[in-house]
Amino acid sequence: MEKPALRSTSRPKGGESEKITINLGPIDLGQIDLLVEEGFYSNRTDLIRTAIRNQLALHAQVVQETVTRRALVLGLQHFSRQDLEAVRAAHQRLTIQVLGLASIASDVTPELALATIESVAVLGAFHASTAVKTALADRIR
Fold first, then answer.
1. Name one Pfam family in it (predicted).
2. Cβ atoms within 10 Å of 68's Cβ, excluding its own
């Protein structure tokens, strides 16, 4: 049977981001503050984002090869209740593999998720209700 169509996009919409926390030594932090004061960056976050993007660009080919080898969805993959009901009706189960953001709609019940999702492997962020995450806990890698 043909698999249900699932949406995917390469970048989250503006404003959609995950917060991370990093620890830096006082010398590194001081150098960052100096560059901000000198006008090279608008703030600490601007420098850190730029540094991360530069490193990701440097390793872009390795990332792309790994995404292909692992058959990962790159970007955003959202599963609505209707998507999962179609999977259940087709007597199929999903293996979710995403580099980016995987999300399950808030109206998906834990029972529907358990019936349709074999495993979840997300490099990035996984958004689902607490009840669905709890139900799938042993299937999340």
1. RHH_8
2. 10
